[in-house]
Amino acid sequence: MRILELLLLVLTTVSGIWTFSCNKKHKGLQLFLLSISSIVILAHGVLEGFRLQLACVYLALPVLWLIFLSSKKRIGRRKRIFLLSLSFLCLLGTLASLYLFPVNTMPKPTGPYTIGTVSYELTEQGREELYGPEPRKDWHIRFQVWYPADSSKGGKLTKWLTDGRKVASGIPVLYNLPSFLLDHTALIKSHSYSDLMISAKEQTYPLVLISHGWTGFSSLHSDLGEMLASHGYIAVSINHTYGAAVSVFEDGEVVYVDQGALPDRSSVDDFDTFSHSLVSTFANDDRAVLDFLETNTFFADRIDQEKVGAMGHSTGGGGVVSFAIKDPRIKAVLGFDAWVEPIETDILEKGLHIPSAFLRSEQWETGPNNEFLKQLLDNSAARPSIYKVQGGKHQDFSMLYMYLPITRILGETGTLDPLENAEIQQSFVLTFFDQNLKQAPGDLQNWFETHSAVSEVTEFE
User: Fold this and answer.
1) How many domains does the chain have?
2) Which of 242, 372, 422, 454 could form an SS bridge with 341, CB 3.0 to 4.6 Å?
3) Dihedral sign for Cα atoms in the order 368, 371, 373, 375
4) 105 inside domain
């Protein structure tokens, strides 16, 4: 719970108890408590931001003021009992709501650089949309870039969700829940600043593309973007339109995931057609964003084009693998539960001829994807490293931990602590790209031996 929230809750509770128990006596103290509470609620709104979970507290304060200003006699015993009971229930509800839906904090990046960030909108002319109720003739993509900067001076600290409540409200829509349920996540602050110049310490920096999974969204990998940027990388997280839970464009248009793009496997006879098309779309998004960055942004001359990597989760993992096989600009690739099953056979048979590695969750230890992952590994010039995170679930390869503890209660996280899982991922990513893009000392084998929750995979089921 944030400091001003806690203070406001305590002050309002004390003010309420005092008002209902002895509203005529010690009115000076009542006035003091209500005045301080009013100041705190204003400071809370400005500095921390109002949120739905404290609605009862916000409502209680004007009610207490009204009682204080209008009451001329002591409140009757029955009325006091009723009001105190009602207040107690509201307090319990508020505490439960604050526990289930806290404003969590992002992990602090470990690198020496300040982190700058900027978002772009790309329109690829002539590439027709495949999805949506009314497909357009041009494809639209949003993506966020994190980059190393020398100082935060002149910059503005940004929020975790670049598009704020429009994204926060879009997530519950997927599950037919009230849109306001996760609005509090729009209050979460990042460690990145807008309006900063890229660091002058190096002439060029390695670039890493990041691709989310089906129904994910770009901000679910902000921790990796910030971590890489703090260590001297340009990191780019792509929001795959119609494959992302929600996409928000500069003109205010909000586009939700097209569920028809990937129907349930058992509901159609031609599932492979849908899955091939989707992973190809993700791979084309990767290619379009890389093309754009190399020619149309202030990063164009600051990217070391001999040090470009790509990583992805699930469908995004399949997309970056497909892209890396076809495009020689990618020099290293890694996947988190990379869904390579939909990659066309003729592409899989070419294999990977660049450094590659995969982290797999315990949840994906078995399944049809393994057959295709083994095919990829067998056809690759240098056999990729593959490791399993014991106790991890598929969605743990994202910032699902920002929705704790409700995700744990609903069984969406694995038995391994999600924050420990996140640390493993960040360490894995940095070790891999440092070794293969920066040619830094160290290797994944040594990394693996120092992480007890991770085991090497040598056989496939």
Assistant:
1) 2
2) 372
3) negative
4) no
CB atoms within 10 A of CB 448: 15
- Give the pLDDT confidence of 189-239 residue by residue, as tens digits: 999 999 999 999 999 999 999 999 999 999 999 999 999 999 999 999 999
106 located within any domain? no
Query: Do 284 and 338 fall into the same domain?
Result: yes
Claim: this prediction has a pTM higher than 0.90: yes
Q: What is the CATH number of the domain that holds 324?
A: 3.40.50.1820
Average pLDDT over residues 301-306: 95
Give the pLDDT confidence of 243-278 residue by residue, as tens digits.
Answer: 999 999 999 899 999 999 999 998 999 999 999 999
DSSP codes, 318-341: HHHHHHHHH-TT--EEEEES---T
Cα(16)–Cα(24) distance, integer angstroms: 13
Based on the fold, state whether residues 57 and 122 are members of the same structural domain.
no
User: What amino acid is encoded at 383 in this protein?
Assistant: R
Burial of 368 (0-12, 13-18, 19+ CB in 10 A): exposed
Average pLDDT across the chain, whole number: 92
Angstrom distance (rounded) from CA 13 to CA 412 = 34
Residue with the two structure tokens 């049809």? 368
Residue 164 lies inside a defined structural domain of this protein: yes
